[in-house]
Design goal:
Helix content is 36%, strand content 19%. The protein has 258 residues and is an alpha/beta fold. Strand 9 and strand 10 form a beta hairpin.
């Protein structure tokens, strides 16, 4: 390992790396080329839940994979979706080095960018690799194993219901089904004696990045009606437990108010 005073540029790359594939590898190799010391932060399962509702690989499994990539100098844990806490520690350790944050270009808002600018660091984006992704991997399995759903379109259309709007379907549809919103989505097609009202779904990350656009869409969909704002999280219900009533619902919210 180089001595800290010999390191001029430290690269930090946060990753989830679920179902590790070629795209992850290329992104990390790109990050590695942008400095002379590469630190990779693997998001915990809780931190990664802001990006993906259900992970297939556990944190320990994902971190073990990254730790075995020989071109990465150090692997650390990222406990929040925002890497700023880790960036501050790195900046303190490498006082004389430029800190470079490498992030995929598939997000409008890059968490950690504000701190990087404060310390005169640099943010570099890497093109999002679309050749392989969770949804494409699932598609390959569907093609290989001819079961109930023979195509991706048949699989997704099964849950494609009227009066049920996802603000960001790419983020939602790349994950498996488990939350309250997904349950209501599923039930809408199967119930005959009850009614599920028109529904609009967005994630916490969507809200933090594109609040004004979300509010605008809510106004278009529901104004001037009153709406109910409800929680939808994977922590609420499971096959062997329930947290019904533990999360707040806000009734009679004006859909035309900001």
């Amino acid at each position: 390992m180089k001595k800290n005073n010999k390191i001029r540029r430290v690269v930090y790359s946060p990753v989830v790396a679920d179902l590790f594939h070629y795209g992850h590898l290329q992104s990390l190799k790109f990050a590695n080329s942008k400095g002379d010391y590469h630190i990779c932060g693997v998001l915990t399962d809780k931190a990664a839940s802001f990006y993906k509702k259900n992970l297939i690989s556990k944190f320990e499994e994902r971190k073990e994979i990254i730790s075995n990539l020989t071109f990465i100098d150090r692997v650390i844990t990222q406990k929040n979706k925002d890497p700023t806490a880790n960036l501050k520690k790195i900046h303190e350790e490498f006082k004389n080095a430029e800190i470079v944050l490498v992030h995929g270009d598939d997000w409008r808002t890059i968490t950690g960018e504000k701190f990087i600018k404060q310390i005169n660091g640099n943010v570099v984006t890497h093109p999002y690799y679309t050749g392989l992704s969770d949804i494409n991997i699932i598609k390959k399995f569907l093609e290989k194993y001819q079961g109930k759903f023979k195509t991706l379109e048949e699989f997704t259309s099964y849950f494609d219901l009227k009066n049920f709007t996802y603000y960001n379907p790419r983020r939602i549809n790349e994950t498996m089904f488990s939350s309250k919103a997904d349950t209501l989505n599923y039930l809408r097609k199967n119930i005959t004696r009850s009614k599920i009202e028109e529904t609009f779904v967005f994630t916490v990350l969507d809200w933090e990045e594109e609040r004004e656009e979300i509010l605008s869409q809510i106004q278009k969909l529901f104004s001037p009606k009153k709406i109910v704002v409800r929680s939808s999280t994977v922590d609420e219900d499971a096959s062997d437990s329930s947290m019904a009533g533990c999360f707040h619902s806000e009734l009679d919210v004006g859909s035309n108010k900001k």
